[in-house]
Design brief:
binds S-adenosylmethionine, 6 helices
Length: 223
C-alpha cells in the first residue's frame, strides 16, 4: 500500500484495520471493458451496512443482456448502484442519467464514471423518478431491489414498500418518462406488464419477454 499510510487508507474508508488484520471495504472489478468500484462483501456473520452498494450480480448481468443496444439520445438508469448499467449504456447513448436514492451509490457511480473517463453519465440522487421529473428518455433500464420480503435491511436489496410494488411503480411512472416509440427494459418479470403500461396511459404497448443471451429455453408445459 506504500507510499500511502495505512491510517490514510482507513480514514478514506477503503479498508478497515483491526490490529494486524486489514480488510478491504471496497473492491475494484473489471467488467466488460470497465473498471467498477463497489462495496466489498463482508466476512461471514459480519453485517453489511444498510447503504451497501452491490457490485455486478446475476440480476445486473440479466438486465444488461436484455438491454437493446440501439442508439439512444437520452438513457435513464433507475437505481444505478455502482453505475454498471449506465456505463454499459454510455457507448450507445448521447447522454445517460444515473439515478439512485442511496447517496453512497450516487457517489460510487460518479466515481466509476470518472474512473472510466465517461463524461456523458450524469449522476443524480432521489427516490424513483423524482430526480428526472418532467424529463423523457429513449431508453429506461432498471434493476430494482430484487428481494420481495418484509425485510428492510439493505437499500440495494429490499424495497421500502409492500410486496413487488416498487416494480409496479417503476413501470407505472416509467411510462410517462418514455419518449414516443421508445423502450423500457427491466430485469424482473411482472405479470400483466402490458396492462400496467396501458393503465399508465401508454399507447401501442408491445410486451416482449426475452431470455438473456445464452440462457436455456424453459421447458414446454406438459412435457
Ligand atoms: C439491485 S440494485 C441494482 C444496481 C445496478 N443497477 C445493477 O444493475 O447492478 C437496486 C438499486 O436500486 C436502488 N434503489 C432502491 N430503491 C430505490 C428507489 N426508491 N429509488 C431509486 N433507487 C432505488 C438501490 O439503492 C440500488 O442501488
Amino acid at each position: 500500500m506504500a507510499p500511502t499510510a495505512l491510517a490514510d487508507w482507513a480514514s478514506a474508508g477503503l479498508v478497515a484495520a483491526d490490529g494486524d488484520v486489514v480488510r478491504p471495504l471496497l473492491r475494484l472489478r473489471p467488467h466488460r471493458g470497465l473498471l467498477l468500484a463497489h462495496d466489498a462483501p463482508r466476512g461471514e456473520g459480519e453485517p453489511l451496512p444498510a447503504d451497501f452498494v452491490m457490485g455486478v450480480g446475476n440480476s445486473s448481468i440479466t438486465l444488461s443482456e436484455l438491454t437493446v443496444r440501439r442508439h439512444s439520445r437520452r438513457t435513464l438508469d433507475l437505481g444505478t448502484g455502482c453505475g454498471v448499467q449506465a456505463l454499459l449504456a454510455a457507448p450507445h447513448s448521447d447522454t445517460v442519467v444515473a439515478a439512485d436514492r442511496n447517496p453512497r451509490a450516487v457517489a460510487l457511480a460518479a466515481f466509476n464514471a470518472a474512473l472510466n473517463a465517461v463524461a456523458s453519465v450524469e449522476c443524480r440522487l432521489g427516490d424513483l423518478f423524482a430526480p428526472v421529473a418532467g424529463e423523457r428518455f429513449d431508453l429506461i433500464v432498471s434493476n430494482p431491489p430484487f428481494v420481495i420480503s418484509p425485510d428492510r435491511s439493505y437499500v440495494y436489496r429490499d424495497a421500502e414498500v409492500e410486496g413487488d410494488s416498487i416494480c409496479r411503480e417503476v413501470v407505472r411512472q416509467g411510462a410517462g418518462h418514455l419518449a414516443e416509440g421508445r423502450r423500457m427494459v427491466r430485469g424482473h418479470r411482472l405479470r400483466r406488464l402490458g396492462d400496467l403500461f396501458r393503465g399508465a396511459g401508454a399507447r401501442g404497448v408491445r410486451e416482449r419477454l426475452d431470455r438473456p443471451h445464452g440462457a436455456a429455453r424453459p421447458p414446454r408445459r406438459g412435457r
